Amino acid sequence: MHRRHFLATATAAGLGSAFAAPALAMGPADIVDIAASNPDFSTLVTAVSTAGLVDTLKGKGPFTVFAPTNAAFAALPHGTVERLLRPENRAELTRILTYHVLAGRYDASLLLNNYGRLITVEGSSILSDGRSGSVHLNRSTRVTTANIAASNGLIHVIDKVLLPH
Question: Which CATH class is domain 27-158?
Answer without folding.
Answer: mainly beta
